[in-house]
Sequence to fold (124 residues):
Amino acid sequence: MATSTILLQLRKPDLTDNVNIVTDLNENMDKIDTYLTNLLIGLGNGSDGTKVGKLDAEFQVYTTNLNANTEDNITHTLGRIPIGFIIINKDKACDIYKSTTAWSTTNIYLKCTAASSAVTIIIF
Fold:
């Protein structure tokens, strides 16, 4: 995967000038906000298997097992062993956590504290 470097130039606030320090900090926050918005723009619609914008990640939608705390096998197409997941949506109050089975280049294994929960995650 090709990588690129984006420089984010921020102004160092003059800590001796109490009047302008807030202005400098606000300008920096605006620059950071713009940078992050541009980076994350177009994350996608959360459909099963779709790529997550420019990130090396994908959405997965699944329903957990009929029994709570039972391993779920979630397939992915990243072509590498993922390093984690982020919960985007779930229809029940529950915890979703990594199972003890090793992840692979095609599958991750999670467990959920509630049965039959509809879950959307990002695998990265």
